[in-house]
Amino acid sequence: MKINYNGVEQSVFKSALHTHTTNSDGKFSPEEVIGLYQKKGYDVLAFTDHRKTNPVSSYDGKNMTLLSGIELHPAGPRDIRWHILGLGVPENFSGCEPASGQEAVDAVLDSGGVAFAAHPYWCGFTAAEVASLKGISGIEVYNSSCRYIGKEYNMSYWDELLDAGCRYSALAVDDVHRPHDLFRGFTMIIAPDKSPQSLINALRNGDFYASQGPLFTSLNFKGGVISADFTASVAAVCCMRRSSGRCVAVEDNDGPGSGNKEVTHLEFDLGDIHDQYIRIQLRDADGRMAWSNPFYLK
Questions:
Q1: Is the domain of 113 the same as that of 238?
Q2: What is the pLDDT of residues 103-132, one digit of tens each?
Q3: DSSP 77-144
Q4: Nearest by Cα to 249 from 239, 234, 238, 264
Q5: Residue 246, SS3?
Q6: Are 47 and 56 in contact (CB under 8 A)?
Q7: Are residues 154 and 252 in the same domain?
Q8: In this predicted structure, which of 67-76, 205-214, 238-247, 285-294 has the lowest mean pLDDT?
Q9: Is the domain of 198 the same as that of 223?
Q10: CATH no. for residue 274?
Q11: Are 138 and 285 in contact (CB under 8 A)?
């Protein structure tokens, strides 16, 4: 799959970046997880069992790239445990029992990996508490397994953190533990190839987008103009700081037969707007969303 990204045609890889197996509290063995995602056409699969890594180099990835990862759970503020997603850590990662959230992030970074704060809404953290972690690359904007208590989306957290000056990207993940979690959130990584190092570099640099279904075929920000092409969507908006933004399309809720307009292109000349960031948010006719990472205006 290809995407025109800032004027250059690049490869994009469909990725599942938060998975659990029978090596922690998942219902599927590593081999079963590999088979499930391979059959659905994924390119990349990360193993992120709780407090332990997997010997991914010994697994048959069935032409997918397997990433070594981990989910860490040190104590956090107000007696809440952190859920720190570490991607690209070595299989012999030694920081499995960190004493604090910052120690967890530092251990992931020191090992060559990249760290994200998983499902902050589900955990119950404030945006300020998430921002206290120095060195994380971002958060999960969508987590399938959190929908059971209605806390699967984290857009408000993301915008509050961006408004505060945190340059955070955002993943969409399944956080798969059981069959009902599968194939509801994925991350499209834009990279020159699907080697582990290229993928981790792209995650570190924010070269990806998050989705539940809609796909971008172009994402560009040049000369003060943001533009994108994407699969048919009934809502397409540019989200900016506080009450700023731009609506290209939004659902008409006038009832049956109202005929929601579908769009496949967005273009917005910011002119003399000098805000902090702008990101694109889509929703298709089935209610599935997609999120670009922010482009920074300053």
A1: no
A2: 999 999 999 999 999 999 999 999 999 999
A3: GGGPBP-EEEES--TT---SS-SSHHHHHHHHHHTT-EEEE--HHHHT--HHHHHTSTT--EEEEEEG
A4: 234
A5: strand
A6: yes
A7: no
A8: 238-247
A9: no
A10: 2.60.40
A11: no
106 phi, psi to nearest 5 deg:
-60, -40
Residue appearing with tokens 């509050």: 160
**Separation CA 22–CA 25 (nearest Å):** 6
Task: Say which residues have a Cβ less than 8 Å from residue 163's Cβ, sequence separation at least 6.
Answer: 241, 242, 276
- The angle at the Cα of 113, spanning 48 to 161, to the nearest 5 degrees, equals 85
Among residues 292, 179, 164, which one has the least CA distance to residue 226? 292
User: Helix (H, G, I), strand (E, B), or coil: what is residue 44?
Assistant: strand
Tokens standing for residue 258: 């109202």
Residue 280 backbone dihedrals phi, psi, to 5 degrees? -105, 135
Residue 259 is which amino acid?
Answer: G
Structure tokens of 31? Answer: 């081999």
Q: In this predicted model, what pLDDT tens digit does every residue of 230-261 receive, in sequence order? A: 999 999 999 999 999 999 999 876 554 456 78
Determine the structural domain holding residue 258 and report its residue range.
Answer: 216-296
What b/e string do you get for 223-258 counting C-beta neighbours within 10 Å, with b at 16 or more? eeebbbbbbebbbbbbbbeeeeebebbeeeeeeeee
* Domain's final residue, options 191, 210, 229: 210
Q: Based on the fold, state whether residues 288 and 265 are members of the same structural domain.
A: yes
Q: Which amino acid is at 35?
A: G
What predicted TM-score, i.e. pTM, was given to this entire model? Answer: 0.96
